[in-house]
Amino acid sequence: MGRKWNNIKDKKASKDTNTSRIYAKFGVEIYVAAKKGEPDPESNRALKVVLERAKTYNVPKAIIDRALDKAKGSAEDTYEELRYEGFGPNGSMVIVDTLTNNVNRTASSVRAAFNKNGGNMGVSGSVSYMFDETAVFGVEGKSVDEVLELMLEADVDVRDVIEEEETVIVYAEPDQFHVVQEAFKNAGITEFTVAEVTMLAQNDVTLDGDASTQFEKMVDALEELEDVQQVYHNVDLDEE
Q1: Residue 104 CB-half CA count within 13 A
Q2: Which fold has domain 80-129+202-239?
């Protein structure tokens, strides 16, 4: 699973160059999660996941507080969570998760980003069956054995624990996110290089030359869209 961690890491690195846009997206995501329940992460698990991920992207407290205050107030902005699936060059697959207050705008924009960059949108389920929803945590300063022992002591089932570039990565079932997080917390570990529920491809593909360039342009075009929150794919970025 090492390549999957690198894909997550590379995605984070690329997003770090567009911080203002990423912060704006987190503002919407935090607001929507807070409106689903109480604007308190201790009683709202969906909000807790978003806030933990925001922490790994260094989202400023002011932006988080603004989104939470908006959720606590009388604002009733309506957003829909929509997922689009599609294909890029040479067997590449893409999942696009969006939050939108204008479905027609979002559908048109996502379709255009695919079509203008050599891809095409598929029907619901045409791609997602090749991905697994997965909770992922990354910690530094610990060995694989130490993390495995920590999980065993907390009676937490995990899919895998590996080490990549001095980072220990834990893969677990998505419904175990809070259990894994609590196990780390009880061990005094509260800082993570990654902490999120993501979609990981069951099999990666590699792209060369023009196909690789075209794919990167397509992903960039999708990620630049205002309504797009996450873009997942099955391309092995290490070998592009």
Answers
A1: 0
A2: Alpha-Beta Plaits (3.30.70)
